[in-house]
Hints:
With about 80 residues, this protein is mostly helical. The protein has helices spanning about 5-50, 70-80, and strands at about 55, 60-65.
Amino acid sequence: GNWAENNIIKLTVPILILGVPIFDMVFTTIMRIKEQKINTIIERVATEGNYDFIFNSAGLAYAKKDFDVTQKVLNILESQ
């Protein structure tokens, strides 16, 4: 139709279609890098301060590996 003859629309539509996934990918990558930096700092603070647990507003941010009972749970599951 006539709308496809407009140069602005010809440029805008592909930019929007491709721009959203590209922005999402870049944003996700940046957030993962920041999250990794934060987790590294939390672990450092926990180790230096000899903390067993550190909580943030979302829940448990750090737990000393001594408190990991995953293998015990898996052993019980396998034995049943």
